[in-house]
Amino acid sequence: MKINVFVSNLAKYNDGELNGQWTTLPVDDVNKDILDKLDLGGDSKQGYYHDWFISDYEAPFKIDEYDNLYALNELAEALEDYETIEDVYNALDDKDYTGCEDVYDFDDDFFDTMFTDKAEIARATFFGEIQNWLDPYIYFNGAGNLASMNEYQYQEMLNNHASKIIEEFKNEYL
Predict the structure, then answer these.
(1) Are 6 and 22 spatial neighbours (Cβ–Cβ below 8 Å)?
(2) Do the Cβ atoms of 168 and 92 come closer than 8 Å?
(3) Residue 42 carries which DSSP code?
(4) How do residues 25-83 score in pLDDT, each as one tens digit?
(5) Strand ranges for the chain from DSSP E
(6) pTM for the full model?
(7) Do residues 100 and 132 lie in contact, with contact meaning Cβ atoms separated by under 8 Å?
(8) How many beta carbons lie within 10 A of that of residue 92, not counting itself?
(9) Are the C-beta atoms of residues 130 and 146 closer than 8 Å to each other?
(10) Cis check: omega of the bond before 26, within 30 degrees of 0
């Protein structure tokens, strides 16, 4: 998964000049590869705590302008093996705190696994929200009835909860 950030010099920004550079994370050394190139002044050994900010980004999750660039670089390194937010979501052991529905493949195995009684299936289906019997995903809605979801809705759910998915990923892997 690619994370691109535009890191800007805060002092020059305050003087009316947007000065910075786009960088694809992860980098080998945040100081050498990003911060030293911004002409921040001072010594890199003293640290750059408030001398820079992230003025723009390209990532499937939210990045704040004062996020820790070192931690963000570490996250980008951990996410290198994942292409999409769906891949990250599927890698999680605990999906409860992502805000996403527990979604299952809409197939016979789902019904065989989740139900013991055909009347129970009929009730959950009748009172549920099956949009299309050809939808690839199914889940239990808030009332315990079945609802279906197409691929677009599934991807939209993941994208809407991408920041929470990344937070859970950080809790599990970093």
Answers:
(1) yes
(2) yes
(3) S
(4) 999 999 899 988 887 765 544 444 458 999 999 999 999 999 999 999 999 999 999 99
(5) 3-9, 20-25, 52-58, 104-105, 137-140, 146-149
(6) 0.85
(7) no
(8) 17
(9) yes
(10) yes
